[in-house]
Model the fold of this input.
Amino acid sequence: MTEEDFQAECIGCGNKYSPDKTPYVCDVCGDLLEIKYDCRRIADQLSKLGWTSRSLGVWRYSELLPIQDSKEIVTLNEGGTSLYHCRKLGFKLGLKNLFVKNEGENPTGSFKDRGMTVGVTEALRIGAKAVTCASTGNTASSLAAYAARAGIPCVVVIPSGKIALGKLAQAMMYGAKVISVRGNFDEALELVMESCDQLGFYLLNSVNPYRIEGQKTAAFEICEQLGSPPETLIIPVGNAGNISAYWKGFKEFLSVGLSKELPRMIGIQAVGASPIVNAFKRHSEAIEPVQSPETVATAIRIGHPISWKKALRAIRESKGVAESVTDAEILYAQKLLARDEGLFVEPASAASIAGLIRLKDQGEIDPNETVVCVTTGHGLKDPETAIKSCEEVVEIGRSVEELADSLKVPMKMPATQA
Done:
């Protein structure tokens, strides 16, 4: 990849930036940036390369990533996650072609690793003295791991209140400096963004366009795993970077001639944190932030998503839908996926399944269409919530009679009494 192949462009005013002078947001209008490629040039390059012989993963698609020097890639072999054909759950829901893209299989257990391999590689290239982020958990654990791999100091800022212990333990074990601020995620992010210039840290929240570039590779993989894009993709939405990344990925695969169609994008938020859903249903061009977001799905407990504009564009351009689900629906879907398909995901991940169930009941999903639900993180990220939502553990003595009684199954009659 050379400087001629890509540049950053503001999604608002269209101002352009060279790869060596890319800020986090547009310095003219303050809007988000997006990496744009010379897709015709890249299509010609791909036809001459044996890229299909590479292993499935983020760096399989290096020609569509904004990294100029591949010698210093910071990687933990992220990507290449499984696409499960969920026949049992599909049958229960009346769907013939239901698939789950399980991003919990990434090295630190979430989709964030896709963005971090690209973002931390860029941080290393520019000589950042430290990397930082605000996080409800997964971003912190992922950034901490990749910073450790790169040998760069890492500072993560978390909102006060409940943070899933699995995620916090990861960030601390990887050696990150963890700071808790009195406020919610949106306030933590505001603090981090304000402090980066003064402290000289490199910001790696999804406001950073390099993060989105890594995350879009999941869309590439789905196209290859299915042989074509799905008709519908359903994905949880928190800070809204991921739905934006998937849409960008699907469009780029089409632009370089590697697919022939685009999916419908469906974004799912929790009822207690659903500013994008509210804006979509009001036919509004802007969101109204939720001041005190609340949901059991901590990974999407965000009231003012930074990438809301990109997300709304993705949904509307694709003729998709935005829907919200309750915590009860999320926890039900989490158990349903685990018990029908053996896939244990964290609550935020299960929002995509909960949304599918609700939309199927509303007649939004055709029984014959191919649907991919994205699950974004492993269930062990938040074991406490999972345990609370399941049946209590029954304590017994060491006799078979007590075991049979606790299970409510009859004892077999001894052979001598038969």
Summary: The first strand starts at residue 6 and ends at 10. The mean pLDDT is 93. Residues 90 and 98 are 5 Å apart (CA to CA). Residues 112-126 form the longest helix (15 residues).
